[in-house]
Specification:
This protein has 503 residues and is of the alpha/beta class. The protein has 18 helices and 18 strands. The strands form four sheets. A five-stranded parallel sheet has the order 11-10-12-9-13, with helices on both faces. β3, α5 and β4 form a beta-alpha-beta unit. The protein is globular. Keywords: Cobalamin biosynthesis, Methyltransferase, S-adenosyl-L-methionine, Transferase. GO terms for molecular function: precorrin-2 C20-methyltransferase activity. InterPro entries: 4pyrrol_Mease, 4pyrrol_Methylase_sf, 4pyrrole_Mease_sub1, 4pyrrole_Mease_sub2, Anaerobic_Co-chelatase, CobI/CbiL, CobI/CbiL/CobIJ_dom, Uropor_MeTrfase_CS. This is Precorrin-2 C(20)-methyltransferase. Pathway: Cofactor biosynthesis; adenosylcobalamin biosynthesis.
Length: 503
């Protein structure tokens, strides 16, 4: 029994964007399925011919790719399309699969990016979180390919999902579909958005010919038409597969397929192991030798963030373990909400994704700042893994409050003094009556409320407190604050506040 995955893309004649998008997906698939034969196919005849002429690359069609896999002895094949919608190209690929179905013991096809209702929500979140900083307050226009196929309606559904998630003016216009850039311009004017900067980006796998010419070209393009109507377009020439969070949505479709197709052959000689790895508060020199050793032994690194660029823990590790940049990464953002039902659903979805890798016998490490045992999202995964019989271990890191106390040169507790560790995201008024030292973790978003409450308590009781704070401890942007007045200037989610009643 021999497993294989055939990755099918429309293709592109632009080598650079091919490497950043299609090759990035292929590398990740190969890393996640080290025992599986992974092949590629290009569905566009024109693209294959250009690749052969310009680059002397003999790209295979989906049919040729399946024939080659048969020759190599593949028996169980997962066909993995990178198409955005289930349109003409995806249906042609499915027809090719049907023609060769009897050539294999089993062959299945993963879904296109936008297939099920939840795909729209997942893609909206992944795309907006990847683009929101560059977009800022400007309207965002995405360029989709479009099609005469009924699946063209997917773009309208996607636009609504993006608007609902982002709470921001987001539009999707297509090159060859029903909704054009002229339609989007008319809608923006109707909504009162005129004579302003707009961000324009591809909603396509790659930033190839359409992105460079139809979107960003000097003439007869999205950009030129926007300029003619008084807008100031700024184009982002980046395919959506450059965003790790989008790649994870694609890969989740592949995992659903292989989870069934390879079900009887996924067991490895070694059992899967899950590690929660604490990387300390920010100074990479504080990472333990054990943490570095475990990271290097992992088959997959899980980042609790939308992308590696937004992950504090990844940036810390990268300074002392540069090889992490070449390791397979799984970006799984944890929602910061208090709705228990929504949290449970989100945690279950994330855990099920991680467990899929454990079933394949992979060593999975989830990075977390500070220590995994202290208000860490890792513990949600740890408990589930333990309950399901997996080996799960915690690798300690230096807690932020210990690093902060060291930076301040103060003691957290002496003799009989109590130490209270408090999550500042919740109500804190009742904590001021505690004796000893109060440490308020991740105070940034509610810092003003905490400081006002402390002042009110001092005025009400006459008790005086020594108060310190450190933002981004151990990082390049570290800031130290002494007293309530200085703390008013503090910024950043990673702000730790320490309060001690004066004796």
């Amino acid at each position: 029994m021999k497993k294989a995955i055939l990755i099918v893309s429309f293709g592109t004649t632009y080598p650079e964007t091919r490497q950043k998008n299609i090759a990035a997906i292929t590398r990740q698939v190969r890393a996640l399925y080290p025992d599986v034969l992974v092949a590629e196919a290009v569905s566009s005849t024109i693209v294959r011919n250009v690749m052969k002429k310009r680059e002397h690359m003999d790209a295979k069609s989906p049919e040729e790719g399946l024939i080659k896999l048969k020759e190599q002895g593949a028996t169980h094949v997962a066909v993995f399309p990178t198409h955005v919608i289930d349109g003409i190209e995806n249906h042609r690929m499915k027809q090719a699969v049907e023609e060769y179905r009897l050539a294999f013991e089993q062959i299945t096809v993963a879904d296109a990016l936008l297939t099920e209702p939840e795909d729209y929500t997942n893609v909206a979140k992944a795309l907006w979180e990847s683009l929101k900083e560059e977009t800022g307050d400007a309207p965002l226009i995405l360029m989709g390919h479009g099609t005469e196929h009924a699946a063209d309606s997917s773009y309208a559904v996607m636009e609504q999902a993006l608007r609902a998630y982002a709470q921001h003016p987001v539009y999707i216009a297509t090159v060859e579909g029903k909704r054009t850039i002229a339609d989007v311009i008319a809608q923006m004017k109707f909504e009162g958005i005129v004579n302003t900067k707009v961000i324009v980006a591809p909603f396509m796998l790659v930033a190839g010919d359409h992105a460079n010419n139809d979107m960003a070209g000097e003439e007869d393009s999205f950009s030129s038409l926007l300029r003619e109507e008084g807008y100031a377009p700024e184009c982002i020439l980046r395919g959506i597969a450059e965003y790790p969070a989008i790649r994870e949505v694609y890969l989740s479709h592949l995992q659903k397929t292989t989870g069934t197709l390879f079900a009887d052959i996924t067991a490895q000689n070694r059992p899967g192991i899950l590690y929660g790895i604490g990387v300390g508060s920010g100074n990479p020199k504080q990472m333990t030798l054990q943490a570095l050793e475990i990271i290097r032994s992992c088959d997959l690194i899980v980042l609790p963030a939308v992308s590696k660029e937004e992950c504090y823990a990844y940036r810390i590790v990268g300074q002392v373990c540069p090889e992490i940049s070449d390791m397979p990464l799984l970006c799984m953002p944890f929602p910061m909400i208090k709705d228990e039902k929504k949290l449970e659903l989100a945690h279950t979805r994330i855990y099920e994704t991680i467990e899929d890798y454990l079933r394949r016998g992979q060593i999975v490490g989830m990075l977390t700042i500070g220590d995994p045992g202290i208000y860490s999202t890792y513990l949600y995964m740890h408990k589930r893994a333990k309950e399901n019989g997996w080996q799960a271990e915690i690798i300690n890191g230096v807690p932020s409050f210990c690093a902060v106390a060291a930076k301040l040169g103060i003691s957290l507790g002496e003799k009989k003094e109590e130490i209270h560790i408090i999550p500042a995201a919740y109500e804190v008024e009742d904590t001021f009556s505690y004796s000893g030292t109060c440490v308020y973790m991740k105070s940034g978003k509610r810092l003003a409320e905490l400081l006002d409450a402390l002042r009110s308590w001092q005025d009400k009781t006459g008790k005086i407190y020594e108060v310190w704070g450190v933002s981004n401890c151990g990082m390049a942007q570290e800031q130290v604050y002494y007293g309530l007045d200085e703390l008013e200037k503090a910024k950043g989610y990673l702000t730790t506040v320490i309060a001690k009643q004066k004796k």
